[in-house]
C-alpha cells in the first residue's frame, strides 16, 4: 500500500484553487411542512412516505424522541400520538417547489451549481468566492434561510467527496458550516473562522469506509475483506488494487479523498433517494385510458 496523503501537495495555490460546497437542506420535508405551520416551531414533526407507509423525514425534535428514519407509521402510531408529534402525508409538489426556489437562490449567488437531489446541490466556489469562502458560504446560508425559511448546512472542501463529508460535520454545528482540509491556509480561513476547519486526516481516520460517498454495500464488503475499514485506509490504498477491486469508480473515490477532484456530475454516485411523482386517484379507475394518461403525466414529471 502506498501512503499518499497528498492533499496539500498538488502544487496549486490553495487559496485560489476552486472549492466545492455541498449545500444540503436540514430535515427538508419536515422543514417545508413547518413553513406553513408556525405553530409547530420547536415541536416534533414527521413526514410519511407515499401512501403514508413509513416515516421519511423528521424534525430535530422528532429525532430527539428516538423515532428512526424509515420507521413504519403503524408501528409508531401510538407513540406519535402520545408525544404529540405532528404527522404529515408527503406533499411532493410543495417540496419540488421549495427545492426549485432554493436552487434559484444558489444559482443567483454562484455561477456553477449542480443539483444533486431534491434537497442538495454542489456549488463550485471560484475566484473571490474561493478566496473568501467562509464569508461566501455564510452569506449563501443566510440568504436561503431568509428568503425561504429553510435552513441549510454547508460543507466545503477541495473535492465533492470531501464536501459531502464536510456537510455531515456542518450538520452537527450550530452555524451549519464546516470546512474539511489539512490546514486553515487551504481555505484562507482567518481569525474566528479557523474554528470551521476539521482536519481531513483526523476525520478520515475515524470514519467507517462504508460512510464515504459512493461506497455502497458491495464495495464496503470488498474493502473490509481486504482489511480496509476506514476512509483513511481507502484513501491510502494502492491505485492498481483499487482499480482492480473497485473499478475506476472506487479508484476515483480514493483520489477524491486525497483532495484530487475527479468526480463530475456525469460520473457521480447516484443519490440514494428514489424519485417519486405520484398521486392517488380521487375515485376508483376502471378505464385503461384514464390510467394510461395519469401514468404518462407522472412519468413525465419524474423524468
Ligand atoms: Mg437533506
Keywords:
303 residues, alpha/beta, MutS, DNA mismatch repair protein, domain I, six-stranded mixed beta sheet, three-stranded mixed beta sheet, disordered N terminus, binds magnesium ion
Structure in words:
The chain is α/β, with parallel strands linked by helices and 303 residues long. Among the domains are: 28-91, MutS, DNA mismatch repair protein, domain I (3-Layer(aba) Sandwich); 274-303, no CATH class. Helix content is 43%, strand content 15%. It contains twelve helices and nine strands. The protein has a six-stranded mixed sheet. A hairpin with a 2-residue loop joins strand 5 (112-117) and strand 6 (120-125). The termini are far apart. The model is unreliable at 1-15 (pLDDT under 50).
Low-confidence stretches: 1-15
- Which structural class do you get from the secondary structure elements? alpha/beta
Please summarize the sheet with the most strands.
Answer: 6 strands, mixed
CATH topology of the domain at 28-91: MutS, DNA mismatch repair protein, domain I
Approximate helicity band? 40-55%
Order of H and E elements: EHEEHHEHEEHHEHEEHHHHH
> Roughly how many Å is the radius of gyration?
21 Å
CATH class of the domain at 28-91: Alpha Beta
Please report the distance between the alpha carbons of the first and last residues: 43 Å
* CATH architecture label name of the domain at 28-91: 3-Layer(aba) Sandwich
Amino acid at each position: 500500500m502506498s501512503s499518499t496523503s497528498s492533499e496539500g501537495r498538488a502544487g496549486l495555490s490553495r487559496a485560489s484553487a476552486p472549492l466545492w460546497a455541498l449545500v444540503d437542506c436540514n430535515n427538508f420535508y419536515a422543514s417545508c411542512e413547518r413553513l406553513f405551520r408556525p405553530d409547530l416551531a420547536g415541536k416534533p414533526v414527521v413526514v410519511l412516505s407515499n401512501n403514508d407507509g413509513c416515516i421519511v423525514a423528521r424534525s430535530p425534535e422528532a429525532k430527539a424522541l428516538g423515532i428512526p428514519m424509515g420507521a413504519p407509521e403503524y408501528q409508531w402510531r401510538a407513540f406519535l400520538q402520545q408525544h404529540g408529534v405532528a404527522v404529515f402525508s408527503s406533499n411532493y409538489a410543495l417540496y419540488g417547489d421549495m427545492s426549485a426556489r432554493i436552487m434559484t437562490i444558489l444559482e443567483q449567488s454562484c455561477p456553477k451549481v449542480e443539483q444533486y437531489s431534491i434537497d442538495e446541490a454542489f456549488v463550485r466556489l471560484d475566484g473571490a468566492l474561493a478566496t473568501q469562502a467562509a464569508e461566501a458560504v455564510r452569506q449563501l446560508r443566510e440568504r436561503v434561510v431568509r428568503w425561504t425559511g429553510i435552513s441549510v448546512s454547508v460543507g466545503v472542501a477541495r473535492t465533492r467527496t470531501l464536501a459531502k463529508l464536510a456537510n455531515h460535520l456542518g450538520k452537527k454545528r450550530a452555524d451549519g458550516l464546516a470546512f474539511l482540509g489539512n490546514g486553515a491556509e487551504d481555505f484562507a480561513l482567518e481569525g474566528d473562522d479557523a474554528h470551521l476547519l476539521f482536519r481531513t486526516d483526523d476525520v478520515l481516520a475515524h470514519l467507517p469506509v462504508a460512510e464515504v460517498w459512493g461506497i455502497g454495500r458491495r464495495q464496503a464488503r470488498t474493502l473490509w475483506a481486504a482489511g480496509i475499514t476506514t476512509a483513511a485506509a481507502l484513501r491510502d490504498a494502492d491505485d492498481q488494487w483499487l482499480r482492480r477491486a473497485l473499478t475506476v469508480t472506487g479508484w476515483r473515490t480514493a483520489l477524491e479523498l486525497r483532495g484530487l477532484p475527479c468526480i463530475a456530475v456525469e460520473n457521480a454516485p447516484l443519490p440514494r433517494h428514489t424519485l417519486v411523482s405520484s398521486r392517488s386517484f380521487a375515485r376508483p379507475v376502471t378505464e385503461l385510458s384514464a390510467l394510461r394518461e395519469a401514468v404518462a403525466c407522472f412519468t413525465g414529471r419524474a423524468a
